[in-house]
Amino acid sequence: MEPIRHAKIAFCLLFLVGVVGTVGFIYIEGLTPFDALYLTIATVTTVGYGDIVPETQNGKIFTAALIIMGVGTTLYVLIELIASVLEGRLSTAYGIARVKRGVAKLQKHKIICGGGRTGNVIADEFRNDCLDFVIIEHDPEVVKELRKNEIPVVEGDATKDSILMEAGVERASGLVSTLPSDCSNLLLSVTAKDINKNLELVVRASSEEAAKRLYSIGVKKVVIVEEVGGRRLAKSLIKPAVVDFLEFATETGAASLESIKVEHGAKIANKKVKDLRIKEKIGTTILAIIRDEKVISYIGPEDEILEGDTVVVIGNRESLDKLEKLEFS
Question: What ranges do the domains of the chain cover?
Answer without folding.
Answer: 2-96, 107-229, 254-325
